[in-house]
Amino acid sequence: MYRVFESLDALVTVVEEARGVPMTSNCVVPRGDVLDLLDDVREALPGELDDAQDVLDRRDEIVDDATQEAEQTRSGAQEEAEQLLADARAEAERLVAEARAEAEQTVARARHEAERTVAEGRRQYTELTDRAQAEADRIAHAGRTAHDRYIADGQAEQARLVSQAEVVRAAHAEAARIVDSADAEAERLRQECDGYVDAKLAEFQEALGKALRTISRGRSNLWRGAPQNGAAGAGLNGRSGTGMDLID
């Protein structure tokens, strides 16, 4: 381009220094010099100008080809997008189905474990209750036996020492004390048994609570990650999605 500008400047100088024609604004320029400068300008012009002119000459054809190619690209992109959307929906439905199946299995296992734990708790409660009742009955029977024996001993002693009223009163008092002690011991053992049974039931209640909270968190995570569209919303079937539906 620098050479083009030099040739143009030289051409302007030739025209300015050319001899003028009298009575006119024309001038006489050396033809050979002008033609040489014009050849220099033509040779100095970059080849991209010819290419640009070819592009301008084929503008409509190029625009039509570009438009057709763009339309084909758009159609292909739209078809590919539709295919990807269909694949994504199918994959989402598959994942939701798998999640529901896994959730149902988890609920079934949790219910089975809860039922087993309840049955075990009931068995332990029954066993402890029966054991406590048997122990209480044994202690009560022992107390009654001791009471009867002490009464018999007291009566015998009373018959032997009928004239000794103080001794008789002491025997009655001792017999009453022994009976009261036996009754107190039986009540203490019954209270200890009740406390043990209550502690076991509290442990069982805590285990059930942990299991239910675990199920609730699993259900909450499941429904929190579900798609928020109309189809997913209809699939809840009126459930809250909080995990408490597992208890129902």
UniProtKB/TrEMBL annotation:
Signal peptide range: none
Keyword Coiled coil annotated: yes
Compositionally skewed regions (Gly residues) per UniProt: 232-241
| UniProt keywords, alphabetically | Coiled coil
Domain of life of the organism encoding this protein: Bacteria
Please list the coiled coil stretches: 67-131, 172-199
Q: Where is this region: Disordered?
A: 224-248
Q: What is this protein called?
A: DivIVA domain-containing protein
Q: Which organism is it from?
A: Pseudonocardia zijingensis
